[in-house]
Amino acid sequence: MASDIAVGVDFGGTKVLASVVDIKTGKILGSAKKRTDQNDNPKELGERLFGTIDEALKSAGLSKKQQITGIGVGIAGQVDSENGVLLGAPNLSQATVNLPLAEMLKKRYDVPATLLNDVQIAAIGESAFGAGKDMDNFLCVFVGTGIGGAFVQNGDLVRGASGSAGEIGHLVIDANGRLCGCGGRGHLEAYASRTAMTLAIIGELKRGRSSILTKLAPDLKDDAPGGTALRSGILAKAIDEKDDLCIDAVRDAAYYLGLGLASAINLLNPPRIILGGGVIESVSMLFDLASKHARQEALATPGKAVEIVRAELGDNSGVVGAAITGARAT
Amino acid sequence: MASDIAVGVDFGGTKVLASVVDIKTGKILGSAKKRTDQNDNPKELGERLFGTIDEALKSAGLSKKQQITGIGVGIAGQVDSENGVLLGAPNLSQATVNLPLAEMLKKRYDVPATLLNDVQIAAIGESAFGAGKDMDNFLCVFVGTGIGGAFVQNGDLVRGASGSAGEIGHLVIDANGRLCGCGGRGHLEAYASRTAMTLAIIGELKRGRSSILTKLAPDLKDDAPGGTALRSGILAKAIDEKDDLCIDAVRDAAYYLGLGLASAINLLNPPRIILGGGVIESVSMLFDLASKHARQEALATPGKAVEIVRAELGDNSGVVGAAITGARAT
What we know:
Largest interface: A-B, 46 and 45 residues
Strand order of the largest sheet of chain A: 3-2-1-4-8
CATH architecture of the largest domain in chain A: 2-Layer Sandwich
Order of helices and strands of chain A: EEEHEEEEHEHEEEHHHHHEHHHEH
CATH superfamily of the largest domain in chain A: ATPase, nucleotide binding domain
Mean pLDDT of chain A: 92
Oligomer: homodimer
Helix content of chain A: 40-55%
Number of helices of chain A: 12
């Protein structure tokens, strides 16, 4: 009998989280995490992945190659999910391209393995045990370092012609606007991601604007152009302290996030949008303003039809979803 | 035995076209058309519809209530397709709201009848006999008075939570940009529809810019703000004559249409986009530039994966698709 226990891994831009999951209940039996390192070469990236899985198995009281039915990995990069190959992941390892991760996992753990992107696994997790569990159709939007999305139609994740459906962060919302990390212009992600907010805040600090951030995050001003340095928790704290600069930055981001959501509402007419990701979880003002603005900007009919809710599984949506795909792998 | 003959009606902003269609082959057995009149009251709108259907039946050599299996209507307005009710259609009749058109058709012709919007029926027509006939997944985009869209997923039209999925004309592509007819700002339709092009051209004519249009369409400058007066054929002719103003207007529209298509490509990752509508059919420069720009602006992976093709059924996509839905009606 196949066991109901699978391993799910969420390999993101800041950390790798691996969990052993009971996929019948969504319960997490053991977890481990490691920091991500952009300097990893392909071998190191693989070892970081294996090491985290090994620790998660240990923390669940399982040994390697025992009692698990499969391994699913979601990764913050471009994947060829059909063949289980990581095509590239600039935020995780500049040096890694075309790494056959699913194959490597199969060899090491002797169980089936799958590879998806990090947003897709989170959507599957929310679909099974979170804010999408009673819905056949919904759109997930996760705001973090970037902005990712995934939509579920008739109970299935829509993958698209080449597995990249759901890239809501790359909706053009401001023709000829800000440069996006992808090279495009005016994309949602360049206005409403945590990275975008951080860059706007750093710019203002450099212009001499006062902010409590000079105390809460004294090194922020020196951050390289990456703009990933401002943690969501610190942003939330500054807003609790009524810091003008941070309130302005979040209000701006929420305005544009609302426009992007309105576009998605008009095009897809979803019954529900699930908003998640670190900055949405930490900063309730972003959720509140973006939801309100999305409804205002959307056409009346689909705007009334959509519920906008928070993701429910937090950090665990990814590992739970990944474990589910791992258990289904062949 | 149910016959394979059904009536399809495409009730658009400028004309009503009704056809008797062999839904097994897509062949049109007879057609009729009438102009649309915005001054219609609900009764007149109904009579315009009935009159066109009666003429189409006659032209196919059929009598009323005989030999047809159903009637499908696609209409340029907001519809409640579940109940066959026209909620409102400002471009067809300011006075008409909540008209139970399907019920009225059933009563008069004694066959099942359905109501969808005009873009949805065109997508169904292209799906069955046109540019989508070999595809389970595609996005249709029709450029005319407005810009409408519809997408087909796993062979079925995606309707969304309240039947309005596909409204690509109301993607926000320019935050804080031009006012759209819907009241929103910066929507694709306000930049790339025939109406948008016409308004831009009229503005330039009023500023004194010279153009062959002063000969081809001498009354254009006096057009009311509706901006629907410039026919696609005249625009095409002016471009053939290398009219600078019209070339600029189409180039601008194609630029923005490309941005909107890129957004849709990034979000949906469709294997194919079918572009149709009067102005796409008449003005090949619009199709060519918009397709090229869409690929350039889209993310690399979905941009490479998408084919962009022309609709194949022209004016008939709507009536053929409508007839198919009529034949399926119960």
